Structure formats: C-alpha cells, structure tokens
Q: What sequence folds into this?
C-alpha cells in the first residue's frame, strides 16, 4: 500500500502547488469569537439564588392569582342545559326520531337571575361532544369561495358537501352545512328582551374572509338537510351566525356567541326563554346548553387562570420555605473539590 | 499485467492508453442531478424524508401542506448539492488549468508546443527548470552531463527536500539530437498508486544501443506534480498519463469516518423511529375503532357507509405523517453546521499556532471533532512526535574509546579533536563513514557555504558533525564524491547504494577510493543489524556496552562499520545485485537478500550517539491526558532502551518502585508464548496494587504474538494502560490500532512521518504533526498540529466542548420535535382520533426552523466549564469519554422532559427544584467544578490542588487499568468514576482465573454505583 494518500481536498495537479504558502497566510486573526472567548454567564444554582428566585415567583404570582380569581368570581353566569328537558315525554326513549320528526320543537325554559348582571350580557350556546375539530369536518370548507364571488365553483375541498343537484353549493362544505339552528327568544315580564345579533363575529372575518358579494346559493337543497338555512338575499359577510359557526372550535366542548342582551338584569328577575330545539345532538349524545354571561376585564368566567397562578405561587413559596429550612438544617459547601470522586480518599469509606 | 510503452512511436500506443487529460471531477453536467440525488438518497434519513414528502402529496391523508416538508427537504438537498457542485466546479477549473498548460513534446521527430492534455503514452516530454511534471515520465536525458536532475516532490509526499533523479544507464551520454529520435520499449507494470516503487525495464532499439535490458526504478522517474529544480532541462518518456499516473491513482476519497456520537445518534434515531411506528399503530387502530363506533354517529362528518379498499390504511398513514416530525429534518443540517464550526475553532485557535513556524493547527476532517472528546487510547510515535526530531550528534565511541562522555558533546571533546588532528586511522575511517555513507546531497549556496539536503535527520546530523570534525563532504558530482579532510581532497566513486529499509535497518554504500582503487563497503545501521555481522575475531563487547550506555541516556545510536572488498568479490556480487534490481516481482525482497550477501564480516568502527530532544511540554501533556483517563501506547521504530529512556523522561512510565516494566521478548513462538503468559499473570496480580504497570514488546515478538497469540495479547492490551512497542514497522503500527479498535476503544494515532501514515489512517482519529519529516502524516491525518503539546488542548478543550455541544444539540433537536409531536398526539385524542393537525403548515414549519433550529445553534458557543478548569481537572473528561452526555438514558431524560413540558407547560418550577436538590446534594463532577469556578479563587488555586495528584494517581490509575472494556454499551466509562466502589468489588476477590468474568462484574457494579 502506498503511504501517500493526499487528502481529498488537495484537488488536482493545479491546486497542489498552492498548498504550502496558503497554510502560512491562513494564520487566524484574533477575535473573541474565533477564540471562543465571548462573554457569557452560566447561572449556578446556589441556595441564595434559588430561594430568592422561588420567593420572587411566589410574590409575583400569588397576587396575580388572587386578582384574577376575584375577576373571575365577579362574572355572573346562567347556564341552562336543555337538550333532555326539551324532548317530550313520549319521545324520551327515542330522542333521535324526535329530532328528525316534523313535530313542533318549541320549548319553554325559565331562567332566574341570581345576581345583578351588568350589560352587555352575552348569550352563548354550548355544545358538548361535538367534534368541530374532526379532520373530515375541519377541512371541508372553501375559503376562496367564501371570500370571493368569482370563485363560487371552487368546491374541490368541500367534499362530501360540494355539489347538490350538479350545482356547486355556496357556502359549501360540512361546516356550513351543519350550521347550528336552535333559536332563542327571551322575554322578561312578558316583554320581549331584545337580543342584538350584530357584531357577534370577528371583524376580520367579516371584512376579510367572508365576501360582501357572495350570496348563499343552492344551500341546503340536497336530500340530506344538515342544519340551518341561509337567507339567499343576505351576503355572507352579514350572515354572522354562519361566520361564528365557521370559526371552528378546537375542543369538542365549545361555546359560540349567539347574541348580546344590552340591558342590566336585576337579581331575582325571571327570564322566559322560548327556544326552537332543532339541532340534532341526540344521535351522538351531545349536550346543549344556553349560557348567559357577563364579562370582566379578564373575559368570561374562568377560575383556572387564578387557580393556576395561586398553585404555582404557593408551590414556589413552599419550596422556598423548605429550601431555607433544609439549607439551615443541613448546609453543604458548594464547589468543594473534595467532592470530586477522584479526590475522595477511598480508604476513608 | 504489464504495459509496454513504445518510445516515440506516434502510432502504436495512441489508442491503447488514455491521454493526459486529468479529471478529478465527480460529476458531469449531465449526470450531476441523478448522481448527486442518488448519493444523497442512499442515506436512510433522506429516504425517510422523501417517503414522508411523497406521502404528503396524497391530499386525503396529509394533515399539513406538503410544502412544509418539501420546502425544507428541497432546501437541504439544494444546499448539499450546490456545495458539491461548487467543489466540483473548482476541481474542473483546476483540471482545466493543468490540462491546458503548454508543454514541449516531440512529435514526428520535431519538438512541438502542445497542451498537456494531448500527451500520449510513449511521447517524449521536455521540461525546463521549475516546470511542473505533467505526467509520469521515465527520465531519459538531462542537461547534467552525469544524467542527474533534482525534483521537489512536495506535492506528492509533502517532503520539501530535493530528490535526485538519474537517467537509466542505457541512455547515458546521449546528446540532444539523438534524444529526438530515440526508439525503444519500456516494460512497466500497470498503473498503481505506490509512489515508492517503479519496477520496470527499458530496452532501446538499435541502432542506439545493443539489445540490453536496463532496469528502471523510481529513481529514474519524474512523477506527475513534482517540480524540476536546479536542472536546466530534462526530458522523459510518458509512461502513465491522465488519471492513471501514480498521483492520479492514489487520489481518491477516503472512507468517511463515523464518530461514536454519530453512531449513537443513528441508534437513537432508530429508537425514535420504532417509537413512532408504535404510536402510529396504536393511534391508527384507535382511530379506526373510533371511526367505526363513534364517528358514524357524528352525522355532521358524513362518513360514507362503505369506504374504498384502502380505508383502513388512511388513518394510520395520517398519523404517520403527523408523527413524522418526531425525527427532525433539521438535525443533520444543524449538526453539519456546528461541526464545521468546531473545525473552524480549531483552525482559529491562536493557542495552537506553532510559534516556530507560524503554522496554525488545522482540522482536515470537519466531521469528527466530538470523537476527540471520547478518545480512550492514544498511540503515539516517538521520533518527531514526542521528540523534536532535531538531531544533534552528541557522543561517539571509536574503537573502544568514548568521546564526549565528560562534556556531553563529542564535538568539543579535546581528545577527539586531537585524534582528528593526528589523523588517527580509526578515527579517519569512522569520519569517512559518517561523511559518505548516506544519501545526502551537498548544495553550494551562493555564499560558498555548503548546505546538506538530507532525507533523514540522522544522516543530516552525522554529515554536519563530520564537517565540524574537518571531514567535509564537499561535492557530489554524479558518482564521484569529494571529501575534504584536513586540507586534502579525497575522491570516492560510489559504485552501489544499498538503501535503507525498515526491515534491513541498515544502509550501505560501496565506494571505490579514487586514489588507490580500493573498493570498500561502508555501512551504518542499528546495533542489532550490524554487530551480529562483525567479523569473527572482533571484540564487540565495548561497542555493546557503548550502545547500552547511550541508550540509557536516551540517545539514538548507530553502529558504523566497514569492510574492504576484493575486486572479484565485488564484481560477482554486482551482477547479482543488478539482476535483483531488474526483477519485476518481489524486487524489494530480492534486493534485501542480495544485500545480505555482501553485508557481513564487518569491521565495526564505532558507535555514534545522537540526541533527539523532547519537545516542550511533552511530560505535562502526557500526565494531564493520562489523568483524563486516556491510555498511552508508544509505537516506535527505535530500539528498546532508547524507547524506554524517552518514555521515562516524558512521564510515560514511572520508574521503579512505583512503576513496573514487564518485558515480552523471545525469538521463537515458545519463548514469546511463555513470556506473554508470564506478563499476563503479573498484570492480573498487580492489577489490584497501586502500581503503574507497563509492558514492552519489540517488533519481532509482536509479530509472533499477533500471529499466534492474538487472544492473549488482546487481553494484555485491555489490561494495560501503558505499552511501549519498539522496533515496529508501519504495518505493525496499523495492526495495533486495528487491535485496539476491535476491542471497541476509541483510538487516536499521532505521528509525524511517512511511517505513521498507515496508523493515522487506520485510527478513529489521526493526528499529524507537521514536523521536520515532511507533511506526509499531516496530510493523511484528520487533524494536523504543530507540536505534541497541542494535543492536550485539542482533546480537553476542543474535543470536550464539541462533544458537549453536540450532545446538547442533537438531543435538543429530538426534544423539540417530540414536544410538538406529543401535542399533536394528545390533540388527536380530543379531535376524534381523526388525525387533525393542531397547527397549520406555516406555524409548523416556522416552529421547526425559525423558533427552534436556528436560535439553538448559539449553543455552539456553550462552555460548561472554562478552559482553565478543564485543564486543571482533566478527570472531568470521563463524562465525554464514557459518553455520559449522550446515551439512551440521557435521551430518555430528554424524552421525559418533552412529555413533561407538554403536560405542564409552565412546569419549570418543579424542574428547577429537582435540579437544585440534585445540584446541591448530589452534584455531578461538572456541577461541582462549575460551582468551584464560580466561587472563585482559593479552592481552585494550584497550591491546594497540588498535593492531590500524587494521591489521585495512586488511587485512580492502577485501578482503572483493570477496567476491561465492556463491549456492548458505548457509554461505558473507561475510567472508573468512583474508585472506592471498584475497590470494594475487587476486594471480593474471585480467583484470578475467572478474571474476565469477575472484571465484567466489577465494571457493571461500578456502573451501578455511578452517582450520575
């Protein structure tokens, strides 16, 4: 075997002669980067640092937790689950056939206000066990069709609700097809309680995603009727129920905004709700709830954030405390080379 | 197979052999894309990504936009393809430059200027001074009347001295005109890559010379890429052209080396892949079950009653795509990037610049820096590596009289100077051998001073010393040597040169004294190659003593000898030699055999002793690296005593009583076997004692041991932390590397000369010292450094940091992919196991590339400990060496972390607490040192540490000798981390016969006791 094997980079004959002088001129320039001497810091977990860090976290977190818990407690919520109660006695064993039948679905509910509810009061419907995030469902829409009238026949992504009677459906897809169609009427002391259904969707959705010149066409015309029908004379950008519905929920339990009640409700006031129980959640045992809720600066009623802050803060406080105790009871010298195993005297053990 | 080259025959050989077009290109314009793609797709990871990307094209199953995989994939491919293309284009340019160079060539009897690429085999090529040789030529004429010319072969073998080339005897004395018309045939072997051999014959056709066969050797050739120097012109016959030249054949892409870390990452990737398949199967089944039970009830998804035939596959495939990000596409790119940066840091390091020459260290192989941090064995050459290879003539012993013993410098010894002045015959003969028994070329500089161009440092030292003692080697004019001694000029004619080979271990010249016509054989060589061949009556005792004494001092010894030859004896031998020189098969061996017939009945004149000083910082470097748990083996061609002395002086082995040296010797199988058994037994017994045990073996015994007792020798190699192998050949060096590698050790070979090249290429990491023996080793090596002491920094600083950084980076890459993948998996449980992606394509891609891959590259600047701390506590290297920062258990840690971070996104508190507790009460060594570093001065100060090492060495090193390699896990530490546990396990004394099993036990025991 030859002892000479030039490195692969040595290249051809032509480049070989340049090798020797190049090496000398390549003497590197000094810089902090090339010498790996850039300033750096590495936090060392000394007792003082760790205990004070934990203390700091607890001092910051506990008040935040308390404040957000209070904010959440300020929110007043009325929740009414109605999907079972709205099925007549004779259908209670076969709810699916009830919902699919042509029986009158009107249902009356009574809500009692427990605490003062300041306006605006938001009206939500809440569905359980409804997989708006199912892959088949979530992909079944055509954003270009919703936005622009010119691409009204772009329904390729909408299967299986793309065409009906050989005509493209606008708006196409499973999401639009399964639009929620329960309606609620509120009355207080036999007086109609106005529900404002304007501005319940995202402004960006209205302006950017749903076109002003796109009108429902050939919608719910198939053999299988899914959910609500749409008024063909109203452009999609004003069909706010649809816009809210089409912003799909990430979790199987979700609330969607139905409208706003723009007056205060006093304690012990009784609200009569007349609802049309049209939407089929019975076939998959889903719950339907009507929710009236005020808001605080933190949003709706949600204790989780406050509890999470309090837990973490409390835990940190506890850890800081116990570390201090441990440190006082059993201090240990840090960075003592005698702890290095190769410095330890084996005879001593 | 042979090739017949017809000189100056324009018709016959045109078609037979390729023209002189050099092509180093890997690709052409047409085949670039397919070939490059094919190469890239031969890697498993790329195949995997391609498969995923193709699956994503199926819109039914893709959870995200296919662009999110195709984008990065194409980007990665484009980057590596354009790098290849750029390299190839540069190669093309340099080829083109070389190919289009204009060269004078004889065509139809007329000299013509043609492009280098049009040279054909058999053409006569004319070169002028400082021209580059365009192809391999057989020299047939030069401007020199004696037919000599000089070439610089630096581009070929890195040796910067000038080499003499001579025209074959048959062409001697031809004039200018004749050379244009010369005809003949050269019979030469087919192209090979051996630049040291060219066994061919030349036969000139009448009318030039009689039909005599003239042998050709490498001395008659001009090889491609050499430069013609100090010669006005030369001409030669092209024998190998284009890519078939010696250089062209030896070119080639060396096997890429794979680091232990790469192997581990591959393994972990495989594990993740398996995990992924399991997840996909579970989710796929769950998805199909959910679909059949629940989804049918979810009327709004409108599942068809009867799906297509592949329906069952759809959900698993969707999950496969969803989980495909578990294996991060970015890991290879990130790793390549940081690896090249590690290499750059080595190139840039101003503390590794050789102050004498200004040459910085250089990482030729950019891919294996992590391995430096995992070295377990260092195999080092002695001469030029541990020593400076700056030979100085110090002492000599001439016919029993010692010179230079008092002052330590024979050149200043009055006794010797007097003897020279008095022309004492013994001394004169001694000096004559010193001056002319060599291959040195004297060159007169313009100032009149004589410079010697020598290939061997020993010869250089001898000739210079002779010159200082008034025996000046003045001139070499073809075969005539001129010597000036005390004012008178003596001329010798060199009849034959019997060259040095590492097998013969001696070289000789046969010269004729031009004054009295006497023929003399002058020899110099190793003592065992000379002394046994002394004539029957000579008292060699004093010489043996001298050799011993000098070797004790760590000096290199050479015996000089001489014998007068009778005219007819020489003539007879000369014929044999000529015949041997012209054989084509086994020429080297034949020549050696013939030489043996002449080299006997020597009159041994004396012994020279040459000092080769240790390089700066060698003992400290060895001690530091030894503390870091690295074992040293010294492989040297030098003799045993010298090797041992050097080893002692550089802390390689400890003197008695602390150290113990075990000798393996013997000339026959039986002797070697017994010796080996004995050493092995001692080794096993002493393994429990705090003693530095080393074994010494010489080349002969080594060969027998490797051949017949490989198993026993392997066991010995495992037991021994230190070994000295002397008198070993280059191939034995490589064999030893192979042996250690076969035991699953990470080996680093360091050397400086051509004889180390094989070992360097064989080892996991080859380090070359760009020293005085040329750049040969440095070129073949993965790293070239200027001085041995830089090795410490290379391993402890660069190797360690590289390992740590890669360990972090690779595991982090998996961690971040796993986190996002776990989120997807958990989301799938609340989205009806339907394979919905929680993230849209853009976010996913941005997460993979911009949020997590790019910022984390900053970790390439991470330093867990400062360089100073690492140097003071080299033991900390064990973390890298044992692979403790990247192994399945640390990986499991990262895996768990990713799961945990999924569940408790804000869960840093408990993690911190956990860390703190471990940090304070069960700190790892790195943590302890970090704390110490931060706490500052007094603890770390040398004064406090200094008393420790002695103790440490006592405790750690002997014990860890006994840590045999457990073969399976790579992360098994070589150096025991907790000596007390090891000690205990040894205390449980099982009988030594069961050593193997017992040590396994102990190593596993210590593994259990390891505190991290």
A:
């Amino acid at each position: 075997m030859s002892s000479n094997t030039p490195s692969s980079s040595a290249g051809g004959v032509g480049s070989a002669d340049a090798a020797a002088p190049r090496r000398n001129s390549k003497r590197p320039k000094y810089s902090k980067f090339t010498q790996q001497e850039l300033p750096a810091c590495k936090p060392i977990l000394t007792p003082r640092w760790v205990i004070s860090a934990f203390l700091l976290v607890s001092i910051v977190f506990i008040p935040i937790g308390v404040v957000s818990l209070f904010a959440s407690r300020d929110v007043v919520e009325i929740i009414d689950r109605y999907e079972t109660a709205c099925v007549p006695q004779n259908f209670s064993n076969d709810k699916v056939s009830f919902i699919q039948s042509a029986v009158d679905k009107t249902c009356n509910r009574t809500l009692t206000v427990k605490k003062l509810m300041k306006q605006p009061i938001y009206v939500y419907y809440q569905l359980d066990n409804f997989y708006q995030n199912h892959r088949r469902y979530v992909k079944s829409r055509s954003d270009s069709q919703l936005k622009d009238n010119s691409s009204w026949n772009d329904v390729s992504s909408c299967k299986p609700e793309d065409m009906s009677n050989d005509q493209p459906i606008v708006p196409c897809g499973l999401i639009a097809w399964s639009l929620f169609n329960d309606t609620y009427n509120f009355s207080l002391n036999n007086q109609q309680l106005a529900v404002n259904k304007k501005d319940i969707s995202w402004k960006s959705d209205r302006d950017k995603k749903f076109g002003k010149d796109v009108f429902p066409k050939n919608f719910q015309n198939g053999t299988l009727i899914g959910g609500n029908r749409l008024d063909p004379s109203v452009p999609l950008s004003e069909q706010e129920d649809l816009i809210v519905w089409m912003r799909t929920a990430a979790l199987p339990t979700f609330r969607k905004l139905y409208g706003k009640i723009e007056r205060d409700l006093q304690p012990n006031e009784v609200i009569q709700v007349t609802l049309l129980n049209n939407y089929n959640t019975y076939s998959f045992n889903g719950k339907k709830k009507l929710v009236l809720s005020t808001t605080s600066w933190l949003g709706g009623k949600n204790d989780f954030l406050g509890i999470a802050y309090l837990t973490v803060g409390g835990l940190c406080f506890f850890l800081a405390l116990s570390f201090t105790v441990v440190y006082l009871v059993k201090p240990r010298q840090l960075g003592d080379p005698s702890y290095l195993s190769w410095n330890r005297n084996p005879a001593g053990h | 197979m042979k090739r017949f080259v017809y000189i100056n025959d324009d018709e016959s050989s045109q078609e037979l052999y390729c023209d002189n077009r050099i092509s180093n290109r890997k690709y052409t314009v047409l085949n670039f894309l397919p070939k490059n793609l094919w190469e890239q797709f031969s890697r498993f990871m790329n195949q995997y990504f391609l498969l995923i990307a193709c699956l994503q094209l199926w819109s039914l199953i893709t959870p995200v936009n296919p662009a999110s995989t195709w984008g990065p994939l194409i980007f990665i491919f484009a980057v590596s393809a354009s790098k290849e293309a750029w390299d190839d284009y540069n190669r093309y340019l340099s080829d083109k430059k070389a190919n289009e160079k204009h060269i004078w060539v004889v065509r139809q009897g007329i000299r013509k200027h043609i492009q280098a690429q049009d040279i054909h085999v058999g053409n006569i090529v004319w070169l002028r001074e400082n021209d580059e040789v365009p192809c391999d030529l057989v020299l047939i004429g030069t401007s020199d009347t004696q037919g000599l010319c000089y070439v610089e072969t630096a581009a070929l073998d890195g040796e910067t001295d000038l080499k003499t080339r001579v025209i074959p005897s048959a062409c001697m004395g031809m004039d200018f005109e004749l050379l244009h018309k010369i005809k003949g045939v050269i019979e030469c072997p087919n192209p090979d890559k051996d630049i040291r051999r060219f066994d061919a014959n030349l036969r000139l056709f009448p009318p030039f010379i009689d039909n005599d066969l003239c042998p050709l050797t490498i001395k008659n050739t001009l090889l491609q890429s050499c430069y013609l120097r100090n010669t006005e012109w030369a001409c030669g016959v092209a024998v190998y052209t284009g890519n078939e030249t010696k250089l062209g054949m030896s070119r080639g892409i060396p096997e890429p080396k794979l680091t232990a870390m790469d192997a581990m990452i591959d393994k972990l990737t495989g594990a993740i892949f398996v995990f992924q398949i399991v997840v996909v199967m579970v989710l796929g089944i769950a998805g199909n079950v959910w679909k059949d039970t629940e989804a049918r009830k979810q009327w709004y998804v409108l599942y068809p009653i009867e799906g297509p035939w592949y329906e069952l596959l759809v959900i698993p495939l969707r999950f496969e795509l969803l989980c495909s990000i578990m294996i991060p596409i970015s890991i290879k790119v990130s790793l390549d990037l940081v690896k090249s940066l590690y290499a750059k840091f080595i190139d840039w390091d101003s503390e590794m610049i050789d102050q004498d020459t200004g040459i910085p260290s250089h990482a030729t192989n950019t891919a294996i820096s992590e391995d430096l941090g995992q070295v377990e064995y260092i195999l080092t050459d002695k001469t030029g590596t541990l020593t400076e290879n700056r030979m100085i003539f110090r002492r000599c012993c001439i016919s029993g009289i010692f010179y230079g013993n008092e002052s330590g410098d024979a050149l200043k010894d009055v006794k010797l100077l007097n003897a020279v002045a008095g022309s004492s015959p013994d001394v004169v003969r001694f000096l004559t051998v010193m001056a002319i028994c060599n291959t040195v070329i004297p060159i007169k500089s313009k100032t009149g001073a004589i410079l010697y161009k020598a290939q061997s440092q020993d010869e250089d030292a001898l000739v210079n010393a002779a010159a200082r003692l008034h025996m000046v080697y003045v001139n070499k004019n073809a075969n005539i040597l001129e010597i000036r001694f005390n004012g008178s000029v003596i001329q010798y004619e060199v009849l034959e040169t019997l060259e040095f080979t590492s097998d013969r271990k001696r070289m000789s010249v046969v010269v004729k004294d031009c004054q009295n016509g006497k023929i003399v054989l002058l020899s110099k060589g190793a003592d065992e190659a000379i002394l046994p061949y002394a004539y029957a009556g000579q008292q060699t005792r004093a010489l043996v003593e001298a050799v011993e004494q000098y070797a004790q001092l760590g000096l290199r010894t050479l015996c000089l000898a001489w014998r007068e030859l009778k005219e007819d004896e020489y003539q007879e031998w000369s014929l044999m030699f000529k015949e041997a020189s012209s054989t084509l098969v086994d020429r080297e061996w034949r020549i050696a055999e013939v030489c043996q017939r002449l080299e006997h009945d020597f009159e041994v004149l004396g012994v020279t002793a040459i000092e080769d000083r240790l390089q700066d910082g060698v003992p400290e470097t060895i001690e530091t690296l030894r503390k870091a748990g690295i074992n040293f083996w010294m492989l040297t061609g030098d003799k045993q005593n010298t090797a041992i002395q050097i080893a002692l002086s550089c802390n390689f082995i400890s003197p008695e009583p602390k150290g113990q040296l075990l000798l393996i010797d013997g000339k026959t199988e039986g002797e070697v076997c017994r010796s080996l058994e004995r050493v092995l037994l001692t080794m096993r017994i002493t393994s429990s004692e705090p003693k530095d045990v080393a074994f010494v073996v010489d080349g002969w015994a080594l060969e027998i041991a490797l051949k017949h007792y490989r198993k026993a020798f392997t066991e010995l190699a495992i037991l021994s932390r230190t070994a000295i192998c002397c008198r070993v050949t280059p191939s034995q060096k490589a064999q030893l590397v192979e042996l250690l590698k076969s035991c699953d050790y990470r080996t680093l070979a360091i050397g400086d000369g051509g004889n180390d090249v094989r070992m360097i290429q064989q080892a996991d990491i080859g380090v070359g010292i760009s020293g005085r023996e040329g750049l040969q080793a440095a070129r073949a090596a993965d790293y070239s450094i200027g001085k041995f002491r830089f090795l410490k920094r290379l391993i402890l600083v660069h190797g360690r940091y590289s390992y740590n950084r890669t360990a972090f980076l690779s595991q982090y890459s998996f961690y971040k992919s796993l986190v996002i993948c776990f989120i997807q998996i958990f989301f799938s449980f609340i989205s009806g196991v339907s394979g919905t992606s929680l993230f849209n394509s853009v976010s996913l891609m941005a997460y993979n590339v911009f949020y997590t891959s790019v910022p984390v590259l900053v970790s390439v600047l991470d330093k867990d400990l400062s360089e100073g701390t690492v140097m003071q506590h080299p033991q900390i290297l064990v973390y890298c060496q044992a692979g403790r920062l990247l192994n399945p258990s640390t990986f499991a840690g990262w895996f768990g972390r990713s799961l945990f971070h999924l569940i408790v996104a804000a869960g840093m508190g408990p993690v911190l607490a956990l860390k703190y507790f471990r940090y304070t009460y069960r700190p790892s060594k790195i943590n302890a040192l970090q704390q110490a570093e931060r706490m500052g001065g007094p603890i770390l100060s040398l004064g406090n540490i200094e008393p420790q090492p002695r103790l440490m060495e006592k405790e750690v090193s002997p014990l860890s000798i006994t840590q045999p390699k457990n073969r399976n896990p790579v992360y098994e530490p070589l150096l025991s981390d907790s000596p007390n546990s090891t000690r205990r396990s040894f205390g449980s004394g099982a009988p030594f016969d069961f050593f193997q099993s017992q040590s396994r036990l102990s190593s596993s025991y210590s593994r259990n006791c390891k505190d991290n």
Observations:
- Chain A touches chain B through 82 residues (CB under 8 Å).
- DSSP finds ten helices and eleven strands in chain A.
- Chain A has two domains: 43-75+301-334, 76-294.
